[in-house]
Design brief:
Number of domains: 1
Number of helices: 12
Shape: globular
Order of helices and strands: EHEHEEHEHHEEEHEHEHHHEHEH
Distance between the termini: 6 Å
Largest sheet: 8 strands, parallel, barrel
Strand content: 15-25%
Strand order of the largest sheet: 1-2-3-5-8-9-10-12
Helix content: 40-55%
CATH class: Alpha Beta
Length: about 325
C-alpha cells in the first residue's frame, strides 16, 4: 500500500484563498499529507506570489486534524537551522504531532542572488547542510544543553526546552548517492527521493540500507518517500487543465504542445502521467520498489484534479 500526499508549488502563483481551499480539500478528500515548497521564487521576473511558508504551515496546523504536513523542503542556505528547529517544534505541538521538518541544502541560484544569500559551490552547500542537520538534531535529541562549533553555525549551551521536547521527524530530500544519502543515513527519519524511475529508487534505497547499517541504524528507521509531478486526466482536455500551473510558472513551457510538455514531465522529471488507471499502475510500480508515500507535486488551484485523484486513484492504493 502506498500513501498518496500532495505538494503545492508556491512559486506557481499561490495565494491565501487558494491555499485555504487546497488545505480543506486535501484534508477532506482523504490524502495522507500536504507539503509546500519553500522558495521566494523560481520563475524569472516578473515574479509570482509566494506567501511565507511558515505562516502557511501555521494555518494548516490549526485548520486540520488528520493530515501530516511540512516543507518540501526548506534550504538551510536561507533558513537559519536554530529558528527552523524552534518553529518545527511549535508547529508539531500546535498540530498534535503531525509536523514533518523537510530540509535541503539549497540549489536555486537566482533567489539567493536576488535576496543576498550566499549559495556557494556544491561542496560548500553540502558542508553547510551537514552542519545545519547537526545543529537541529542536537537541539531535538540532546538531553543536555548543546554546544557545537562549525564553519557556518554555532551553539553554546543551547536548548529548546528541557526536559527535551517531542521533536518532529526530519525529512531529507534528494537522491545523490555520494553526498545526500550518507546524510540521510546519519540524520533523517524520512528520505524523499526525486527524479528516479522505480528501478532507480530501488537501487538508491538499497544503497541507503547499507549506509544505515554502517552507522548502526536499522533499515526501518528511515521511511522511504518519493516526490514527483502527477498529471492525471481522462481526456486531453483534462490533461491540459492539469498542466496549466506549470505552463504559467515556467515561461518556456507556456506554448509547448501538450504531448511535448507531458513528455518533459514523464521523462525529464520521472513524473506520473496519464489516465487514472495509468496513474494507479505507475504509483503501484513505485510501491513495489519500496516507496511508502508518494508526494504528488500539484498545481495549487487545480481542485478538480484533486477530486479526480481522490475518486479514481486513492481507492486503488
Amino acid at each position: 500500500m502506498v500513501a498518496l500526499s500532495i505538494s503545492v508549488e508556491a512559486w506557481t502563483g499561490l495565494t491565501w484563498p487558494r491555499w485555504k481551499r487546497v488545505v480543506t480539500e486535501v484534508e477532506q478528500l482523504g490524502f495522507a499529507g500536504l507539503y509546500c515548497s519553500d522558495h521566494f521564487t523560481l520563475a524569472p521576473p516578473p515574479t509570482r506570489e509566494a506567501p511565507e511558508l511558515m505562516l502557511l504551515l501555521t494555518y494548516l496546523a490549526d485548520h486540520t486534524e488528520r493530515i501530516h504536513f511540512g516543507q518540501m523542503v526548506s534550504p538551510v542556505s536561507i533558513r537559519d537551522p536554530v529558528l527552523l528547529a524552534r518553529q518545527a517544534v511549535a508547529l508539531d505541538d500546535l498540530s498534535a504531532g503531525r509536523m514533518v521538518l523537510g530540509l535541503g541544502a539549497g540549489w536555486e541560484e537566482s533567489e539567493h542572488l536576488m535576496y543576498g544569500y550566499e549559495l556557494g559551490d556544491v561542496p560548500t552547500r553540502m558542508k553547510r547542510f551537514e552542519e545545519g542537520l547537526e545543529v537541529i538534531t542536537q537541539l531535538f535529541r540532546s538531553d543536555t544543553p548543546a554546544t557545537y562549533a562549525g564553519r557556518f553555525f554555532r551553539l553554546q549551551d543551547a536548548e529548546l526546552r528541557l526536559p527535551r521536547p517531542k521533536a518532529p521527524p526530519i525529512l531529507i530530500g534528494g537522491s545523490g548517492p555520494k553526498r545526500t544519502l550518507p546524510l540521510v543515513a546519519r540524520y533523517a527519519d524520512i528520505w524523499n527521493g526525486q527524479n528516479l524511475t522505480p528501478e532507480g529508487f530501488r537501487e538508491r534505497s538499497a544503497q541507503l540500507d547499507g549506509l544505515l547499517s554502517d552507522v548502526h541504524r536499522h533499515v526501518g528507521d528511515v521511511k522511504r518517500t518519493y516526490a514527483t509531478p502527477v498529471v492525471c486526466g481522462r481526456t486531453p482536455t483534462e490533461l491540459e487543465q492539469r498542466v496549466r500551473a506549470w505552463r504559467e510558472g515556467v515561461a518556456e513551457w507556456a506554448n509547448l504542445p501538450l504531448d511535448a510538455l507531458l513528455d518533459i514531465m514523464r521523462n525529464g522529471f520521472k513524473g506520473i502521467v496519464g489516465s487514472p488507471e495509468a496513474v494507479v499502475e505507475q504509483i503501484k510500480a513505485y510501491g513495489a520498489a519500496g516507496v511508502e508515500e508518494l508526494v504528488g507535486m500539484w498545481g495549487n488551484e487545480d481542485i478538480e484534479g484533486l477530486q479526480l485523484l481522490a475518486e479514481e486513484v486513492l481507492p486503488h492504493l
